[in-house]
Write a structure and sequence with these properties.
Length: 130
Amino acid sequence: MPALDAVSHLSLTVTDPGRSADFYNRVLGTETLFSSSGGPFSLVVVARQGLMIALRDHPGMTDQGFDPSRIGLDHVAFQVPSRADLEAWHTNLAAAGVACSEIEVSPFGLHLNLKDPDNIAIELFVSEPT
């Protein structure tokens, strides 16, 4: 099988790419690399080391909102290096007024959950034996 190194980027369909970019920049510490709204769709690309997210709308898009029970994306999970980092994320999110879950234990590690402005589910995950 040919090699795959990692996920190159995520491309998320959102209702307002600018609003979503503001959220990801403020909450996840990304920075806007590219922004275009002159064509048939708007696109904003945000990134930080090891992570690039394209945020775009589509012509004729319906505003049904994100729903993990539909075919497609259930949630996006970002790896966190350690339990201490996950605890720091929880503290920072609370201080920023971002609604998130408590840190939860699963058979695979620890995680907390939050949602972006379009209700897309985001998980911050540390793969640490429980």
